[in-house]
Amino acid sequence: MDLLEPITIRMLHTAEELTAVRDLESLIWADEDPVPVNHSIAVVKNGGLVIGAFSGARLIGFQYSFPGFDGTTIYLCSHSMGIHPDFQKMGIGEKLKLRQREEALHKGYRLIVWTYDPLETVNGYLNLSKLGGVCTQYIENCYGEMPDVLNAGLPSDRFLVEWDIAGETSKPREDSAKGEEVPLLIQVEVDAQGFPVPKAVLLDHEWNVNVLYVPVPNQFQTIKANDLETALDWRLKTREVFSYYLSRGWTVTALRKSNLPYLHYYVLTKKLPKRNEG
To answer: What's the whole-number average pLDDT of the chain?
Structure first.
């Protein structure tokens, strides 16, 4: 059976392999157009990467990235990563990202960037706490209206993640304030269905601390499916808080998992944490 086969990660190059990636992408995001095979072939021949995860001989996950340049810095733009629904929550995404870092360093890249929805906390924990990426920019409605099931009905707001793969920040990151009293930038109540509802946001305050928390729901898609109005409220209130603090020098550096059944916390710090030497 597929689930008993060992998981292997390897680079993809051929038209046959990249056609399998296109087909898997179509399966995972049924409402989106997949990357054309002729485009992905051109990308891997010109500094980009397509990486596959296999269960035995079956492709069950992929990561796709291409070269980027902002006028000053050359970097790798990590465009998409998908895992077959039968193989999710098995750590395959982390394996793909670690192989991406290895291959990117081999090609001479020092920086990888990508976007993700900050209300998708599984992605947030991987991107920030496990991989060591950071976010200094919040992009409102980054991709415009998106019709797929994960995004339909809401603005496509995104964090821009920067992963310094050649530097000391590219390390798993613990929440340095864990156990301490830290200000919460959104007040939260629980409704009759047990869903967290965002209330007042805290802005224009001179905090005499180096760490702040932004609470976010840990089951956002469940809220969205049951109460689109509350989901939109979470989008707009987190947009307000993140846009305000990131524009004032704060950085999102981790996602702290909570013992509460409905909340996690993003960690904002005034500067990047330094790795302990020893």
So the answer is: 89
Nearest to 144 by CA among 135, 136, 155, 134: 155
Look at strands 111-116 and 74-83 and give their pairing.
Answer: parallel
Q: How many CB atoms lie within 10 A of CB 77?
A: 16
Question: Is the CA virtual torsion 151, 80, 136, 131 positive or negative?
Answer: positive
Please give the sequence-ordered ranges of beta strands (E in DSSP) within 84-210, or none if there are none: 111-116, 134-139, 158-164, 186-190, 196-201
Using one digit for the tens of pLDDT, what is the confidence trace for 225-271? Answer: 999 999 999 999 999 999 999 999 999 999 998 888 899 999 999 86
What is the rounded distance in angstroms from the CA atom of residue 241 to the CA atom of residue 225?
A: 24
SS3 sequence of 229-256: HHHHHHHHHHHHHHHHHHCCCCEEEEEE
pTM: 0.89
What is the band of 1 on the pLDDT scale with cuts at 50, 70, 90?
very low
